[in-house]
Design a protein that fits this description.
The chain is α/β, with parallel strands linked by helices. The chain is 46% helix and 8% strand. Strand 4 (209-215), helix 11 and strand 5 form a beta-alpha-beta unit. It is globular and about 50 Å long.
């Protein structure tokens, strides 16, 4: 998204952390979510996690891209219980997470995490097995050529001038923002509620807390149908958290306070946050926690 390839070193479990964070007996703060939580498309020091580490240096980040709330629940249920985080901030980005949930909601394995309270695959204790499996999988992709963009894909990108349109802000939807109609999204809200209720009940077994953090999309900074749809989805999600007693943080006003958010806080429409966007998300989150009395 920035024109530069970014590299970083994963920890022993494959997440974007200093590996020593897993040596703690307990954790003050864990963060969960998708690619925005992972810190995609910015150098390590500008990621959301590293901005939060200024206050919580031993923070554990289990965010990974291309997921949704159900897969995020599965990840949290595997990696949170051994660490018993006092606080988990679970970041949800616009309606994108509802679209991802719709893609995973019927997966039988993931449904077991939601519906079978004792279900766990013990992934925390199997980092070497996972690493070996991933190595075999990636090697297979590389050997098959499927790890690279197809010549047809590159050709159509060229013909449709996608890189040029992105540069001049002519793609107002983008691959990360696929706003469906409000009517299509609202039926998925109860499933988000069930997912957070499951996590809340599990965290309570060690006196931990789950906090829902809403990350605004660029549609909410622009006028038009996309704005009203995104805000309708946001309002429904926040109300669903109120109903089950899960504390929430809404960063929409924090982003809207920027004098030119669409240019300053995203690389381009549909991209991940810019360095300034991640910094503002972290700042707004920390202010909200302080106002609520978090230490």
């Amino acid at each position: 998204e920035t024109g530069t390839y970014l590299t970083f070193t994963n920890d022993r479990h494959g997440f974007r952390n200093p590996t020593a964070v897993w040596d703690q007996d307990s954790v003050e703060l864990m963060i969960n979510g998708d690619s925005f939580t992972h810190g995609s498309c910015v150098p390590q020091e500008f990621s959301l996690a590293d901005q939060l580490r200024k206050k919580y240096p031993e923070l554990v980040n289990i965010g990974i891209g291309h997921r949704g709330p159900l897969l995020e629940l599965a990840t949290w249920l595997e990696y949170a219980p051994p660490m018993k985080p006092k606080l988990t901030l679970w970041f949800i980005y616009g309606s994108n997470d509802l679209v991802n949930l719709a893609s995973w909601r019927h997966n039988p394995l993931l449904q077991r995490y939601l519906k079978s309270k004792g279900f766990n695959q013990g992934l925390f204790q199997k980092p070497d097995v996972i690493e070996d499996s991933m190595s075999i999988y990636v090697e297979g992709l590389l050997n098959s050529g499927k790890a690279y963009p197809s010549s047809a894909s590159l050709f159509f990108d060229f013909i449709l001038l996608r890189p040029l349109r992105d540069k001049f802000r002519l793609n107002l939807t983008g691959i990360l923002d696929r706003p469906e109609s409000l009517e299509e999204m609202l039926p998925v809200i109860p499933e988000i509620q069930d997912i957070f209720l499951r996590a809340k009940e599990k965290a309570a077994t060690w006196n931990g807390e789950i906090v829902f953090v809403y990350l605004p999309s660029i549609h909410q900074m622009l006028s038009g149908t996309g704005k009203s749809q995104e805000e309708g989805v946001r309002d429904a999600m926040l109300e669903s958290m109120v109903q089950i007693g899960v504390r929430h943080i809404d960063l929409t006003k924090v982003f809207a306070s920027d004098p030119n958010p669409e240019d300053n806080l995203w690389h381009f429409p549909g991209s991940h946050y810019s360095e300034k966007g991640y910094a503002l998300a972290a700042e707004g989150t920390l202010r909200a926690l302080q106002a609520a009395g978090a230490q």
